[in-house]
Design goal:
mainly beta, elongated, 1 helix, 10-stranded antiparallel beta sheet
Length: 198
């Protein structure tokens, strides 16, 4: 939660400063900057079915925060750096102790704005995660690629609200493991972001 509070404080500081800017301004113009904070929430439930009978296996709840900052290298195209902070809690039926995973990653992103407000974004991220469960702690290295499609609803010249759909392909390799042993996760989720342009 400390990370999340810091991220929100940063985003709202940028928004406040931008709101009081008086000069004529066009957001998606070469030479401008972008600061964004997005939040995604994922809740999944797993059910197994055998011989016509179904039973709940477990559930997972995940929160992803992705603050980023970028520079418009030309009109409608911005490139920059993103930080990802993620936490997830998994419950398995019949086991009292939850499995908790915390992840942090960083990497470059690029976004293209279409004239109608839609945008497409690609992100590559490297990082690490720690999973704590009944069986102990596991640390892993992370490599992820994410594609995002969203819409920028502008509230004036400097601020936009951005709902988006995200697809992530993430490989997770336990530290110290040999060979090609890794876990690959494919995830689709909805996120909501606030962006300041200055």
């Amino acid at each position: 939660m400390t990370h999340l509070k810091s991220i929100l404080t940063f985003v709202f500081t940028i928004i406040t400063c931008s709101t009081f800017a008086q000069e004529s301004f066009t957001a998606k113009t070469q030479g401008n900057f972008l600061a964004n904070g997005s939040l995604g929430i994922i809740s999944t439930s797993e059910t197994a079915k055998f011989d016509g009978n179904s039973s709940k296996v477990g559930s997972t709840f995940q929160i992803t925060a992705t603050p980023k900052a970028g520079y418009f290298i030309t009109d409608n195209i911005v490139a920059g750096l993103e930080l990802e902070v993620r936490t997830s809690t998994s419950k398995i039926e019949g086991i009292d102790e939850d499995t908790v995973t915390n992840l942090i990653g960083v990497g470059p992103f690029a976004r293209y704005f279409f004239d109608n407000g839609l945008f497409a974004e690609a992100t590559v991220s490297l990082g690490s995660s720690k999973t704590s469960s009944l069986f102990g702690d596991i640390e892993s290295s992370i490599f992820a690629i994410r594609g995002t499609a969203g819409y920028a609803f502008f509230l004036g010249d400097h601020i936009s609200i951005e709902p988006a759909i995200n697809y992530t392909n993430q490989s997770q390799k336990p530290k110290g493991s040999s060979g090609d042993s890794k876990t690959v996760l494919n995830t689709i989720y909805f996120s909501l972001g606030i962006t300041a342009y200055f």
